[in-house]
């Protein structure tokens, strides 16, 4: 039976149908987007190991896949969940005991001579901040099912990417609207972005958090482990970073009459922690690639409201990759303009010869 649609109409309707169905799928999986992105990110991180063991050393693919998945759970997922739970518990504690925060702020005001705000506003701000911070972390206490589903999707996706790597890459090359050399460039840029934004930044943040926690502990600041954990997440933010933690801590110690400890914290923070941060960033920028601080800061602002605390790394990664895609688009347009100019020049030469 003949169809009422022309071939062009059929093509348009097919594209529209695909877009609508894809939209329903994305809406249905919107809360698990992080898991799907996580599969790709972890694959990029561990792909060199996978390539070396499976393709070069000819190890069993299934065995390597299982080992890499277990390694990522132990090294990435479990520490992150432990840090999140520690931070959530302490945030909830301080939100219920705002008198301690108010006392610290009062001492800070006396030490600096700056009136921050009245106590009612501070109490309200602390409670709102605690609620916001708690929502940004995946909590095993408040969302066990969501966490299990997200981790399940992440590792099922990662398993199939590793086990069917050739089909996965072939499918990307087939369906992405880029030429082979462009895809190679995008793949290399993605690897550099992941290394710089995740591996490099996580390493810098970890070193800074350890140094901050040890400094506060040595100089007698209460709850040094908690503030070291806070410093880990703040270290992802360019320019501000860990001074948000050890700066007020040093001032508060001075305000409490412990001048030596307070000055010690400020000196170690300004000389050791900041310089270690700068040194590590220079070294890692040479080895893993560098990302402009503006991209990182803007990516965090965009990423955290959408992806929660993981937006600290996913936000800058997506923004940096958007910049890469824009450069590829610009490069392709430039090449097309050059090709069009050459064709126009050839046509003009032919016209002159004909005359």
**Which value, in Å, is the CA radius of gyration?**
26 Å
SS content category: mainly alpha
Helix and strand run: HHHHHHHHHHHHH
Strand count: 0
Low-confidence stretches: none
How far apart the termini lie comes to 55 Å
The percentage of residues in β strands lies in: under 5%
Query: Could you report the average pLDDT, rounded to the nearest whole number?
Result: 75
Helix proportion range: over 70%
Shape: elongated
Q: How many separate helices?
A: 13
Largest sheet: none
Describe the structure.
Belongs to the autoinducer-2 exporter (AI-2E) (TC 2.A.86) family. Keywords: Membrane, Transmembrane, Transmembrane helix. It holds the Pfam family AI-2E_transport. The chain has a domain at about 30-95 and about 140-175. The N and C termini lie far apart (about 55 Å). With about 350 residues, it is an all-alpha fold. Helix 3 packs antiparallel against helix 6 and helix 12 (about 295-305) crosses helix 13. The longest helix is centred in the last third of the chain and has 44 residues, at about 310-355. It has 13 helices and no strands. The protein is elongated, with a radius of gyration of 26 Å.
